[in-house]
Amino acid sequence: MTQINMTDQAIRRTAIVTGAARGIGAGVARRLARDGLAVAVVDLVEEDCAGTVAAITRDGGTAAAFAADVSDESAVTAAVARIAAELGSPTVLINNAGIGGPNAGVEETSTQQWDAVTGVSLRGAFFLTRAVTPYMMAANWGRIVNMSSISALGDSGRVDYAAAKAGLIGFTKSLALRLGQHGVTANAIGPGFVVSDMTRVGAQRRGRSFEEHQRIVAQTIPVRRVGQPEDIAHTASYLVSPEAGFVSGQVIYVAGGPVD
């Protein structure tokens, strides 16, 4: 019988979390640091990561801020090399960075908007994964978590965002098939409504206060509350743990009720 190598528990692994200056990414970064990982807090502007890094170090964790436009191949390559040099070889990757454009049907979506949204969520995940995979293969161990969304199942007002998030699911399953033999798992998380800058914008678009918007949305969710970044962080924590080594190629919807 194959057993989990419990010495993994004693190894301080290095995790990269993109889009970690705030919201879900910051929540995941803080949780992984509490789990004992050294965390590379990555976002577009290094200074924006200061709050996340400070929260981690204040709690006794290890973290450092790194700037990278994840849609820029050379920026990603340079950032990953710097992370490896400063924090150690990364064997955990959370592809969380993502942006959402204005609500628009396919006939109203510009090429520029399509490229921007898919560039961060999908192209960026590809660049990060390609750069980090050699470290995982060398260690014969790795964990990849891609942040998808319930919008992957279809979103008539955000075809660009839905396409990017659906693409991440196919990407995840392909990684699981390719990298499993190297001790690397790949899974996706599909958040539902989670308190974040993106959902705050959604409230503004509807002419509501964010508090009112949350109350209205909560009534449509079976558990009768909206999600918090910590809800997603709990799931990510499990998926990157040594104990999750037999879970790969899966999409876990964290949405307060059944989705698919």
From TrEMBL:
Domain of life: Bacteria
Residue stretches spanning the membrane: none
GO biological process per UniProt: monocarboxylic acid metabolic process
Domain Ketoreductase residue range list: 13-192
One Gene Ontology MF term: oxidoreductase activity
Pfam families per record: adh_short_C2
Similarity field: Belongs to the short-chain dehydrogenases/reductases (SDR) family.
NCBIfam families: PRK12826.1-2 (NF009466)
Protein name: 3-oxoacyl-ACP reductase
Organism: Micromonospora arborensis
Lineage: Bacteria, Bacillati, Actinomycetota, Actinomycetes, Micromonosporales
